[in-house]
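This protein record is not my work; I was only asked to verify it. Where you disagree with what is written, explain briefly why. This is what I was given:
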Amino acid sequence: MNSADSGVSSRIASNRAALLASGLGCFALACWTLGCGPARTVTAPTTSGGTDATYEVRLHRAAIVGKQHRIVTHGEHHETSQVRVGGKIEKNTREDAVIAFRAVERVVSITDQGKSKRDEYTVEQFETTPQDGTATVLVAPGQVLTVDRGKRSEDTVVTLNGAAVPKPVKQALGLVISMSNGGAVDDDIFGSTTRRAIGASWPIHGAVVASDFALGTGIQATFTGETQLLQRTTLQNTDCLEFRAQMNGTVSKMPDMPEGTTIRTGTMIATFGGFEPLDLTSRALKNATSIEIHIVMELPAKGQRAEVELTTRDRKEETITAL
């Protein structure tokens, strides 16, 4: 396989990372899932509110400077990639990682949109478990990570004791916290200014997602999906709304593709959900996201057609407690 083919494989991998760390990774997402570890105790929700009530669904919560939360997050990344030339497998790789993250987050500064710009995380646990199953401590308990977010994840700087952290640490952190603050807010994509009853569903704003996605990653794609308001409930003694969303994406073009390259398959399936307090000054209490991406690209190689296939499955579950 020539160097151009290898470059395409690298480009696909880097675009996958950009996708996960783009605005999609910043949404207040997800449905209730099982807790992770003893610090992640789950309180069973209790239903409240009238059955005929309607709600304006607002998911964006402005960050408050000086506010502190305990963040407990479980993140998983599973990736397989294969390069085939003339039907023969030239390269076959697999990557698996599980991240356990628990820290006290303090908001230091925010953007004009109310998104976090600089946060400090006092680490209580930050470990990764790779394929061999051996847990590795990425940052020791008691140390403080500083995250200076840019509009894109590659512009974000993560430091420990004033020095930039190694790339693997930043990548692992990107699986469990938001690593950018650019693009649309959650309301622009999943929310509804029309009042909705419990059980109602409505389309996501696919054009907003596509524009935001292209700006952040250079990838052209279309998106469809819907958001559903599941229930009004109490969680952590807080009155909140539970929502769920699903989104499907179709990739049509990636940046810097060599001449003659085509995307034969480019799909993304994502599910989101969460518990959002009715008090708009309080952030989500529990959220999770699941994203699966499958890309197959065809390109010329030594007079033959080569294929590069990448499949990634990423999952994140998070519990947030105000301090």
In short: The longest helix spans residues 3-21. Residues 3-322 form one domain. The chain has one domain: 3-322.
